[in-house]
UniProtKB/TrEMBL annotation, chain A:
<protein>
    <submittedName>
        <fullName>Unannotated protein</fullName>
    </submittedName>
</protein>
<feature type="domain" description="ChsH2 C-terminal OB-fold">
    <location>
        <begin position="222"/>
        <end position="291"/>
    </location>
</feature>
<dbReference type="InterPro" id="IPR022002">
    <property type="entry name" value="ChsH2_Znr"/>
</dbReference>
<feature type="domain" description="ChsH2 rubredoxin-like zinc ribbon">
    <location>
        <begin position="37"/>
        <end position="70"/>
    </location>
</feature>
<dbReference type="InterPro" id="IPR052513">
    <property type="entry name" value="Thioester_dehydratase-like"/>
</dbReference>
<dbReference type="InterPro" id="IPR012340">
    <property type="entry name" value="NA-bd_OB-fold"/>
</dbReference>
<feature type="domain" description="ChsH2 rubredoxin-like zinc ribbon">
    <location>
        <begin position="190"/>
        <end position="218"/>
    </location>
</feature>
TrEMBL record, chain B:
<dbReference type="InterPro" id="IPR055140">
    <property type="entry name" value="Thiolase_C_2"/>
</dbReference>
<protein>
    <submittedName>
        <fullName>Unannotated protein</fullName>
    </submittedName>
</protein>
<dbReference type="Pfam" id="PF00108">
    <property type="entry name" value="Thiolase_N"/>
</dbReference>
<dbReference type="Pfam" id="PF22691">
    <property type="entry name" value="Thiolase_C_1"/>
</dbReference>
<dbReference type="InterPro" id="IPR016039">
    <property type="entry name" value="Thiolase-like"/>
</dbReference>
<feature type="domain" description="Thiolase C-terminal">
    <location>
        <begin position="251"/>
        <end position="381"/>
    </location>
</feature>
<feature type="domain" description="Thiolase N-terminal">
    <location>
        <begin position="5"/>
        <end position="217"/>
    </location>
</feature>
Automatic annotation (TrEMBL), chain C:
<dbReference type="InterPro" id="IPR016039">
    <property type="entry name" value="Thiolase-like"/>
</dbReference>
<dbReference type="GO" id="GO:0016747">
    <property type="term" value="F:acyltransferase activity, transferring groups other than amino-acyl groups"/>
</dbReference>
<dbReference type="InterPro" id="IPR055140">
    <property type="entry name" value="Thiolase_C_2"/>
</dbReference>
<dbReference type="Pfam" id="PF22691">
    <property type="entry name" value="Thiolase_C_1"/>
</dbReference>
<protein>
    <submittedName>
        <fullName>Unannotated protein</fullName>
    </submittedName>
</protein>
<feature type="domain" description="Thiolase C-terminal">
    <location>
        <begin position="242"/>
        <end position="372"/>
    </location>
</feature>
<dbReference type="InterPro" id="IPR002155">
    <property type="entry name" value="Thiolase"/>
</dbReference>
Amino acid sequence: MTTTAGLPREVMGAMDARLSMPYTLTAGAATGVFLAELAQQRIVGTRCSACETIRVPAQDFCGDCGGDAHDLVIVPPSGDLLAWTVTDQGTVALVLLDGTDIPFLHQVVEGDPAALSMGARVTAVWAAEPQGAVMDLMGFALAPSEPVHAVEEAGETATPIEQLNYQMVLDYQHAYGHFYGSLFDGIKNDRRIRGVRCPSCRNVLVPPRAYCEACFVRTGDWVDVPDTGVLQACSVVHIEFIGQRVPPPYVYAEIVLDGTSTRLIHTVGGLSAEALRSGSVHPGSRVQAVWSDRRTGSLSDIDFFKVIDGPADE
Amino acid sequence: MTQIAIVGTGQTVHSRRRLDVSQAGLAREAVTEALLDAGLGMDDIDAVVVASGPAMFGSVNQPEKWLVDALGARYKPVVRVTSGGGTGLAGALQAMNQIKAGLARRVLVVAYDKLSEGALQASISTLYDPFWGREFAVGIMGFSAAYWRARMDKLGHTEEAAAMVSVKNRKNAMLNPKAHVKKEVTVEEVLASKPLCWPIKLLDVPPISDGACAVILAAEDDAAAITDRPAWIRGMAYYSEADNGPNRSMLQSVPLKVAAARVYQNAGVTNPRRQFDVAELQEPYTCFELSYYEGLGLCPEGGAAELIASGATEMSGDIPVNPSGGCMGANPIGATALIRLAEAAMQVTGKAGAHQIGGAELALVQAGGGWANLRGVAVVGATKD
Amino acid sequence: MGTDMKNRAAVVGSAQTEFRGAWSDRQHVDLITQAVSQALLGTGLRMADVDFVIDSGSDFLDGRSISNCGFLGAMGAHHKEESRVEEDGLWSAVYATTKILAGSGSVGLVVAYSKSSESDPRNFWSTLAEPFTQRPVGLDQHSAAGLYAQRYLARYGIDPEALRAVSDRAWAAASDNSWVDAKHAMLADPYWEEFVATPLRRRDMARPVDGAVALVVAAEHVARQVTNRPVWITGMGSAIDQHFLAARDATSFPAAAAAAANAFRMSGASSARDFDVVEVSAGSTVGELMVLEAIGLAEPGRAMDLYAPGSAPGLNASGGSLPADVVMATGLVRLHEVASQLGGRSAHGPTGATTGLAHGAGGIGMQNHCVVTLETS
């Protein structure tokens, strides 16, 4: 190992990462009925069994007093506009529907927001093709002559919509910073793996970092690390799951590169189906990086680690 | 210093998928049962601690903000503590400190997860550093299996020994009315079950559950007024470890040992195997229960396989572990740690019903999360000291 | 609530990184270690003296689950007791102080950070909303602030243009705060004049920034050893409102009032007027006005008076959260500011101040509030 200067030749900026995950969310009984009834162009609210407050959308419990809010009521699709705000997601509004106690948060659609006034009468605007979601009620529009209607007991209601399918997509640009930037710049351009040495405990840390966790002291010299090491632990991944980037089966590997004291997470490859099945790769095996043709500046620049001959670590 | 007791516990009946309630409604069910158990109403509660698994499990960020309405907690102090699978214990520790500090007399801790709502392994894989291994992860199953494999070589934690954990806990779950999975298995069936991340096989893995748990803690004098059967918390600690620091010990958990040492000292425990009547340990995979036997001093290092084989940790043994069935019976991850604490309280107060360990007076609780680097321990007793 | 504290706790050190719109060449861990090491510096305490760490950050902002797990070493939490409080960092400070008062430790480290530049912070806010009926209709921090603002301004007959006094004062103060990259002249850019949620413009909204802050809380016996000017924590309170914005009070923050009342009961204060230094968090200009009224610094509808030239010199001398909102850390930054000013470690704020109040908030439309009071002798 030799000590080298640690400045990357190019600035590694940020790595794009996307978390995209599917959900099957359950709304609960009252909100489920509320969502289902929108297809019939009916707005369902609840009356709290304890404080008698009527709120829309229907809720299983009352946020005012914590009571059960089980009595379903049909609320008229008309009311007074209490407040609105024009945003890039539309005109978000609070409407006090006739006969209710708690305003309803939704949108004002149609017309010029400049024509809105506090207290204006509004009425519901319905989607032509209901999807089983809150936007089946597209929102509210001005209706100056709309008379005041009364709340009615619900009677028979539609079967609640139990499940809402939802895809949450979150995009990130994770900064490399100096330490990861230096590491991945070296990996990308020179096929060099570099760590830092803690001046206190003398251990070499990969990935490199500003502080040694154990000593909480600023790390010192940069250190070149070989692409060989010992398989500290391994398992054979057979299952498939969303977001997986390597097709199973593969060997999940935690590797301690020679001279270092930290875990590098990768896979062991070049194994026969039989070797994978029997789990014959074992902790203590010597391994070496097999570099890819790709130069991405990430751990993917190593295709996998291969088992090599050598004295096993004990 | 004020002693603190558990004066009420509640759990949902855990299940694969609750279509009839929202995440908030699920938490409410457990709270309602805990309040009933304590004979209290929300007006009697000074503060609430919400403990849930990683928020990405359920797509709702800071879910305590949503749960407030379901908990009837408007205008109360509500704080969320999150610490992966051990979060329920971390939440209970927060509540204990509020009472010890004299800032609250009664604190409600509620923990839940509705795992049927999301893609679990994908969510757990987001634990990984985005630069460092996320693309190879399988939740933390690959990681857990890898170090089981290493312990197999060094400590003799064989596949058979782990299978016995599955057999024992699944059998115990048959007696627990709240358990999600009630199906007995044999060692042979566990060994022959489908490999997921070998050596972890299907029957080494707990179910994916919807469930919630609530526990009410109260100060010493108050506890005695609320119930004639308080469960006294004799010690609790929750320690962490840097996930990729130098020379991290992966065979024995240092934070577990540190937490256990501190809690045992507080509780006057010098011989855990002899002194504890029962233990509730959070085993996200069977292999972890073996490892905890050693880390908690129930047997010497390398003695776990022998301990499980001896039958000592069965219901009829001298140190029954997980009479509730543990995670193998139900695993709503964010609630799992608090369920362990609630079950321990039920044991020392004689409220555990069909899975009661006769005469249990001192119970051990363990829970943890993250990269096996967050580790908590608690001791619960029928008496204050 | 017990008010007779057997133990006392003090802030003995605190530090922040510079707050910038984007720290694009730093990772979370870099910002965290910088704040943590600086907070310990000057106290004479070493990391080995720290008994526990309580921290605030967001999985959603960080883009990783249980994100504290990845930052434990950077926070100095290795082999210590640690807890993640996934609220604004002021709640972490309350937990740390609680542990000291409970006798569970003598020295606690509190850490909070955010790098909202690594993602679209709107996702952080919109995912706070119930996903069935609230999130899909466009509820986020902007629309929530707009709805409060319209009703507040209408009720009290205030011209939206008058709000310029609030943002101008905040940004002018930030210009004098070398720890914040905001400069008053930046507001001249038309970008800040755009309406983002009528009647509010971008200049009315808290500006997300990157940064970290750390604070050392110690028990009395340690505090007296390491500093001759301990800043005692005299009161703490928090309270949350219901989730549905539509069901909350239209023009006031009762949860903020309840949080303040709890803190005042503990410290023996009667209102925020009793404090020399006040630092509050807010998501918007109108949100800031409503907080000031809730904690009793102004009568309902009169908080604008505090922005008249020369008034309230001890209020948000740092610039507050409008020019620099370190999303998960903003409340802890307020505490750091108050403690620094009282402890004689700050370049800004009124001279001779001995009492102070820090406020933090969380949730859409500032659903959750926390108040901490401090005193030095």
